[in-house]
Design goal:
Blueprint: E1 3-7, E2 10-14, H1 20-32, E3 36-43, E4 46-57, E5 62-63, E6 70-71, H2 76-89, H3 115-119, H4 142-150, H5 166-180, H6 184-193, E7 202-203, E8 217-220, E9 224-227, H7 236-239, E10 241-243, H8 245-255, H9 263-269, E11 288-292, E12 295-304, E13 307-314, E14 319-325, H10 332-348
Antiparallel strand pairs: 1-2, 3-4, 3-14, 4-5, 6-10, 7-10, 8-9, 11-12, 12-13, 13-14
Helix pairs in contact: 1-10, 2-5, 2-6
Length: 349
Amino acid sequence: MRILYFVTGILFTLNCWADSVDDLVTHEMAKLQIPGLALNVIQNGKETKTAAYGFANLEWNIPTTTNTVFEIGSVTKQFTSACVMLLVEEGKLSLDDKISRYLKNTPAAWTNITVRHLLTHTSGIKNYTGLGGFELSRHLTQEQFIAQVGGLPLVFPPGKKFSYCNTGYNLLGFIIENVSGEKYWTFLTEKILSPLNMTATTNREPSRVISLRASGYDLDKTNGFVNRDANCTDLFSAGEIVSTVGDMAKWDLALDSEKILKNSSKEQMWTSAKLNNGKSIGYGFGWFLATVDGHKNIGHPGSTDGFAASNQRFPEDGLEVVVLCNSGGDGVANEVAKLVAKYYFAAKK
C-alpha cells in the first residue's frame, strides 16, 4: 500500500503500511528539513524495516525509494579501515608501521606518524577539508596531495590529541593502493563489495552515470533548498562512497559474521584508541564508540555537500539502523538514526 504524507509543502511517500516509526521519521524530516530519506533496521540478524520517504529529486518530484543511491560521506571510513585490516590480516602491513614506509616524499614532521595514528585521528596532521585547493575538479594525484598537505605544520605531536581528520583517511587510501598494488576502488570492490553483492555501492564521481542516484540539497536561509555545490571537496577514501540502505544492510550483516573480517580485526576496530597519556578517545578505526541511553553504540555519521548518512550498531541489543538522506545538514541523519534506535529500545521494555 502507498501512503502519502504532506509535510511543510513536501509530499512524503511510503510504499508500506505506516507505523509509529514512519510517523517519527516524517516528523523529524519536517523539523530538520530533509527532502528525501531511506531507512533500514536490522534486529537480531534480520531486516525488519526498510522504508523510503520524501523525494530523491525535488525538481522532477521523483520519490525516494529503498533503492535510491545516496552519498554516505564519512561512513566511507569504516570501509577504508576494513581494507586496512584486510591488509593487516594478510601480513602486508602493521598498524604501528610508520606511514613514511608506504608513502613517498613525506615531510620530516610526519616521521613518527603511524598507520594507527591515521586510523584514530591522532596523527596531528591538519584536516584538509575546508581548505582551498582540494576541490573535486582538481583530482589531485597522490603526489600532489601529499605535497600540498605536507607543507602544512602539524597541529599537535602524534598521539597527543584526538582531532577528526579527513586527511588521514585519504592517506590511508593511498597506503592501501601502494601496499596492494591496486587502485583503492578496485581493492574495495574485490575484497568487500563484490563478495557481499553490494552492487549499488561505488565511487560518487559526478561524471559517472549512476542509476537511481539522488540529487543533493543544502538549505539557504533566503531561498530554501538549493542544489549542492557541484565542485565540492574531493573526499576520496575519507568520504567518496555512494550506497543504498539495502547495500548498507548487507555490510552490517557481514559485520555480524566473519564473512569479510576476522573477529580479532573487528575487535581492534571497535576498541577505543588511547592517547599518549593513556586517555581513551571514544573512537576506534573508522567507528565512534559511545552509548545511547545506556545502550552500547558502535557507529559513524557521514556528511557531504547535499547529503548526510548514519550507520549505527547496538550490539547488545542486536539492533542496527541505517539512515541515508539528501540533506547537507550536519548530523541530521545521525539524529534520525538514534531516535529510531531509541524507539526500538522503548519497544523492548
